[in-house]
Amino acid sequence: MIVEILDTYEKMSDRAAEILKEAVNSNPAIVLGLPTGSSPVGMYKRICDDYQRGELDLSQATTFNLDEYIGLSPEHEQSYHHFMATHLFDCVNLRAENIHLPHASGEEKKAACEGYEQKIQKAGGIDLQILGIGRNGHIGFNEPGNPFESRTHVVKLHRETREVNARFFDSLEEVPEYSMTMGIKTIMRSKRILLLATGEKKCEAIRKTLYGPITPDFPASVLQLHPDCRILVDKAAGQLLEMNSGTMAV
Ligand code: F6R
User: CA-to-CA distance for 47 and 70, rounded, in angstroms?
Assistant: First the structure.
């Protein structure tokens, strides 16, 4: 794994956008895996700005989002559909038919999960998967204990994850209990992975991701096994690492 420690969230976002932009420019028909959450907001902002300046063309790109709550309509303000529309899809030239987000309801959940996997495979697999990380090591919504072999599936969110995400809702009760997420195996099959982490609250998670035992009890530890994984952290999230600035291979 390659780790880059950037001074601030702003610099981390600049670097993430630069990597994403280079990847799109060298392969316009790229298949991207995308996260929601606070970590990628700055990167998406820069991608939108680059598009507005005419420096980026996403018309041939395809996207697959990592996860989505179950039980919220795509129009719900806290749905990941809504998040992505606000932060990226409404301001760039991705084609609607090339945008994919998990969506499951009613009795059709298993078929929806299998269908999502098939769509990823039909698109040729994910070229660049961007990730955030939960304090408990979750990637996507693969909570501790999820098997490394998992593909897209429905998960019951851990209380801690719901509590952290409750900041976006009026109360904890409103945070959905279930989500549909790409599995660890789906993520690990991506050709390249870029993980973003920011703030002191993520420093222990980053330490365990890089140096901890590889175990489903800490899902992000599986990234140690990926052949092309880059982690961008700001100084606060990188404070438990061996270096406090620059780039290092772990
Ligand atoms: C979101 C996702 C989650 C987040 C993680 C970190 O699509 O897959 O794994 O990346 O919860 O969230 P933030 O960036 O808000 O700290």
Answer: 28
Q: Report how far residue 204's alpha carbon sits from residue 189's, in angstroms, rounded to the nearest whole number.
A: 26
Per DSSP, the three-state class of 112 is: helix
For the beta carbon of residue 7, count every other beta carbon within 10 angstroms: 11
Q: Check: CB of residue 49 under 8 Å from CB of residue 43.
A: no
Secondary structure of the chain: what % helix, strand, coil (to 5)?
A: 40, 20, 40
Establish whether residue 37 lines the binding site of ligand 1, counting it when its CB lies within 6 angstroms of any ligand atom.
yes
Please report the pLDDT score of residue 60 as a whole number.
Answer: 98
Strand, helix or coil for residue 249: strand
Is residue 241's pLDDT more than 90? yes
Regarding the beta carbon of 67 and ligand 1, being less than 6 Å apart is answered yes
The answer for 44, left when phi > 0, alpha when psi is -120 to 50, beta otherwise, is alpha
pLDDT at 107 over 90: no
Tokens of 45: 């902002």
Ligand 1 pocket test, pick from 12, 78, 129, 141 with the greatest ligand atom count within 8 Å of Cβ, gives: 141
**List of residues 6+ apart from 108 with CB closer than 8 A:** none
Question: Given the structure tokens 């780039």, which residue do they identify?
Answer: 247
CB 228: neighbour CB atoms within 10 A?
A: 12
Q: Are 162 and 172 in contact (CB under 8 A)?
A: yes
